[in-house]
Amino acid sequence: MATWDLSKSKNHVLICNGSSCSRVGAEELTQAIRKEISDRNADEAIHTTRTRCNGRCQDKCVVISYPNGTWYKDLKPEDASIFIDSLLAGKDYKEKISHLFNGEGFERVNGVVTGIQKDKEKVSKVSKIL
Ligand code: FES
User: Fold this and answer.
1) 52 C-alpha to center of ligand 1: Å?
2) Cis peptide before 21 (omega within 30 of 0)
3) CB 16 less than 6 A from any atom of ligand 1
4) Matching CDD domains, A to Z (predicted)?
5) Ligand 1 pocket check: which of 15, 20, 64 to mutate, most ligand atoms within 8 Å of Cβ?
6) Domain positions in the chain
7) 12-69 pLDDT, tens per residue?
8) What is 11-110's CATH topology?
C-alpha cells in the first residue's frame, strides 16, 4: 500500500494487466517499464498504474500515457527502454501508437482495428452492469 506524492509527476502510464494483455506478457512488460523508470531515477517523473482491461484487447498489450492521452498497442518488454526515453523527452513513442487524443476524441491511427460500436446491450454485458 502506498500514497505517493504526485506533485512532480509529469506522466501517468496505465499498463493494462487485463486477461488478454496478461496472456501475451503484461507482467513482463510492467516489470520492464518499471525497471527502465527506476534505472533512470525517473520514479517521481513517471507514475505507473496496473489496470484491468481497457477495452481494446486486440491491441494487446495496451498502455496509455497521460497527460497526452496517447494509447499504445502491441507493447512488448523490449519496447520499454525507447518508450520511457520518449516520455522523458516529452514525446510519444510513435512506432506503437494506436490512438491520439485530438482534443475532441481519440483518433485511431491507420491500420489499427476499429472495434465494435458500443450499444447499451453490449456495454451492459461486457461491463457486467447489474
Ligand atoms: S485485457 Fe488489455 S485491453 Fe483488454
Assistant:
1) 7
2) no
3) yes
4) TRX_Fd_family
5) 20
6) 11-110
7) 999 999 999 999 999 999 999 999 999 999 999 999 999 999 999 999 999 999 999 9
8) Glutaredoxin (3.40.30)
